[in-house]
Amino acid sequence: MAKTMIMDHPMIQHKIGVIRRKETGTKDFRILVSEIAMLMCYEATRDLELSEIEIDTPICKAKVKELKGKKLAVVPILRAGLGMVDGMLTMIPAAKVGHIGLYRDPETLKPVEYYCKLPEDCASREVFVVDPMLATGGSSIAAIQMLKDKGVKNIRFMCIIAAPEGLKAMQEAHPDVDIYVGALDEKLNEHGYIVPGLGDAGDRIFGTK
Ligand SMILES: O=P(O)(O)OC[C@H]1O[C@H](OP(=O)(O)OP(=O)(O)O)[C@H](O)[C@@H]1O
Ligand SMILES: O=c1cc[nH]c(=O)[nH]1
Ligand SMILES: [Mg+2]
């Protein structure tokens, strides 16, 4: 079984505390989501493999480390996942970006697919799927299945806030996927919202409510 990492970095915890506040406005919310994604990306890439190569410094030859292995891609789940892309790219500027469009039907809470555009060589990349919220897990589980159906094998999932229900569902549906969670909350409410959560992440990032 792949690993699940719940973030314990104080900067991440502090910033998540600020985005939870109902008085945090769109501009600050967007900036903070991007910063949290950057910090989480830093933590989530700790285990990337390195190889040693020889280079010339202006002084002499030296052995240095460089990232080896698969190239990376970031795939946000639209819309809210878009808020995490800039932060991810600050850490891994050469990553390619794919997009998966899904929204959660408010009645059934089931994901509805409306868009999918991935880098051509996605199947050979290590893919970070990003979405701030893992609630029932329906959307992220479906997005990862879409990637697997296109041949992607190395997938990691990153969310800022998870409900225990969604985390369990994700671990069961995709036991091969490493999961990175900023904060693990208490539960889902009767409308499928995370408690205490932060409300609707997409609406808060884009100011649509
Ligand atoms: O785990 P789930 O129960 O599937 O819920 C989580 C999903 O809900 C939100 O998206 P939403 O449907 O609000 O779309 P949006 O990003 O366009 O606002 C969120 O960004 C996740 O994608
Ligand atoms: O709490 C929740 C649940 C699903 N989607 C959100 O944006 N927030
Ligand atoms: Mg939304």
Give unreliable regions as ranges. Answer: none
Instruction: Please give the radius of gyration in angstroms.
Output: 18 Å
- Number of helices in the DSSP assignment: 6
- Write the H/E string, N to C: EHHEEEHEEEEEHEHEEEH
Q: Calculate the terminal CA-CA distance, rounded to whole Å.
A: 39 Å
Helix coverage percent of residues? Answer: 25-40%
Counting DSSP E segments of at least 2 residues, the number of strands comes to 13
- Work out the strand percent: 25-35%
Query: Mean pLDDT across all residues, rounded?
Result: 97
* SS class: alpha/beta
Bound molecules: 1-O-pyrophosphono-5-O-phosphono-alpha-D-ribofuranose, uracil, magnesium ion
**Largest β sheet strand count, sense and barrel closure:** 9 strands, mixed
Shape: globular
Enzyme class: transferase
EC number: 2.4.2.9
Pathway: Pyrimidine metabolism; UMP biosynthesis via salvage pathway; UMP from uracil: step 1/1
Organism: Roseburia yibonii
Care to give the gist of this entry?
With 209 residues, the protein is of the alpha/beta class. The chain has six helices and 13 strands.
Set out the fold topology:
Blueprint: E1 4-6, H1 10-20, H2 26-44, E2 50-56, E3 61-67, E4 72-78, H3 85-91, E5 96-97, E6 99-104, E7 111-117, E8 126-130, E9 133-134, H4 138-149, E10 154-162, H5 164-173, E11 178-184, E12 187-188, E13 194-195, H6 201-206
Parallel strand pairs: 1-11, 4-5, 4-6, 4-8, 8-10, 9-10, 10-11
Antiparallel strand pairs: 2-3, 6-7, 12-13
The structure holds 1-O-pyrophosphono-5-O-phosphono-alpha-D-ribofuranose, uracil (URA) and magnesium ion.
The site of 1-O-pyrophosphono-5-O-phosphono-alpha-D-ribofuranose has 23 residues, from β4, β6, β9, α4 and α6.
